[in-house]
Amino acid sequence: TAAVTPGEWVELTAPLEDGTNHLVAELTPAPREEQTQLGEYEDLSSYDVVTTDIPIEVRRYGEAGQAIHVAPDGDEDSTGRPNDPLDLHTAVGFAQPGQQVVLHTGTYPLDRALTIHRGNDGTAEAPITLMSETEGRATLELSGSADGGIDLRGDYWHLYDLEITGSQGYEKPLLIQGHHNVVERIESHHNGDTGVQISGNQNEPYELWPSHNLVLSSVAHNNADPLANDADGFAAKLTVGDGNVFRYCIAHHNIDDGWDLYAKSTTGEIGDVVVEDSVAYDNGWLEDDPEMELTGEGNGFKLGGESMPGQHVLRNSIAYGNLAKGITSNSGPDVRVFDVTAYENGLVLPGSSAVNLQLTTSAATTDYAAEGVLSYVAGRADDIGLREQEDTITTDPSNYFTYAGDGARDASRNSEGVHVADDWFVSLDTHGLRPEIAVDGSVEMRGLLELTDAAPADAGARLAPNPDPTSIEVHPPVESDRPGPPAHAPGPPDHAPG
């Protein structure tokens, strides 16, 4: 028995046996005089006990350090060996810390979301890995799933080398709601919502909002919702905890924004997010629509919303060719922008008023930081609006801002009058060259917007090789002939996989 307070997290331990366990939760409302969250003229419709059945299946396949194999035609009654693979939902539901769930090459047409429940966790020392086999790649095809793709609510998972596509409108292809997860080498494309999103539940306390997740070496492109105003490439918005990072990622041709870190006044501040060593280009329309019959907002990096504080950091990143702004605080009053390159944003449509860089807000004061900004050629002049803040931004000689629009090539300079020139870049061929994820997991620009020796050393982005590339070897396969009791204690009943 436990007292449960609205907005507070309570965990209980329940005994479980091998096989199917039938637990019952009985929730007894407190008397009216103790219902402090109710207003003077509010009341509960009933004070009867609420009963909830909680079935939990206890099962394991092999042990830590082994790989459970999965195939598109896998069966839930299989052993999980390479020649007798399981189905995806079963393998994920019963994976243990330190195990790998290895997807054989092929297309997995999901008929329902793949939910990794709370309590279905790895550990810091022994995460659970969901990955494609090393010889090929698995594709999760979501057009037949009414509730989206992967819903990652567990902690300490590593998703590696997966393609995710085809989600229905407003259904998330990959939603991260847990903590301490790594999502790496994911290609999320042609979905009906944001490619990869970190968001929690607004009805839960801040400490349960997703935190300390890393999205690494991933690409999100050609995602579009039915109304063309909500599908970003990557997002960490609305209900986000501390310590979330995007690194070595590319967002292009998403109907809304490349990155969206939106916060709402009704749900409150979100944790500070870091985006680094990443690229956002050609967002605001889809690749197969060159005439732009359908367009969305089209910012490269959107770093806030509704004047809510959030010291999000954009570092060593590039925004070019986006329909609207390359980099925008979107009314956030205290974002940080370091060593970025913004080129030809807001020039896609004639007469656009978009900019390379916008740092403005309706909040009473600002606390912006910007160093090493290299803005060159845009729809109009950069917009820096400081409030009750000393101007160390436009006076910093490491910042090169655009002071006129309409594609003027002599309008970008620093506070000392040094102008940006074409010879600062190896190539400006934004149509013939495209960024890609390199073998080491970094972003390879292939010369595009890479800086030459003519450029000052303290301005602009310089994307470098990954000093710590990921290397994963497939574990030995599971050895057991049949599923057995768990090798670790399961989480609380309402969090365990069903």
Q: In words, what does this structure look like?
A:
- The chain has 498 residues and is mainly beta.
- It has one helix and 33 strands.
- The chain has one helix at 88-94; strands spanning 19-27, 50-58, 67-70, 100-103, 106-109, 114-116, 128-132, 138-141, 150-152, 157-165, 174-176, 182-189, 196-198, 214-216, 219-221, 234-236, 244-247, 250-252, 259-260, 273-276, 279-281, 301-302, 313-315, 318-320, 327-328, 336-345, 357-359, 369-378, 383-384, 401-402, 412-413, 436-437, 443-444.
- The strands form five sheets. The chain has a ten-stranded parallel β-barrel. Strands 6-9-11-13-16-19-22-25-27-29 form a ten-stranded parallel beta sheet.
- The longest helix is centred in the N-terminal third of the chain and has 7 residues, at 88-94.
- 49% of the residues are buried.
Helix/sheet category: mainly beta
**Main beta sheet, described?**
10 strands, parallel, barrel
Shape: globular
Counted beta strands: 33
Strand % is 25-35%
- Please give the count of helices: 1
Mean pLDDT over the residues: 93
What is the CA-based Rg, rounded? 25 Å
Q: State the end-to-end CA separation.
A: 23 Å
As laid out across the biggest beta sheet, the strand order is: 12-14-17-20-23-26-24-21-18-15
In percent, how helical is the residue content? under 10%
Low-confidence stretches: 486-498
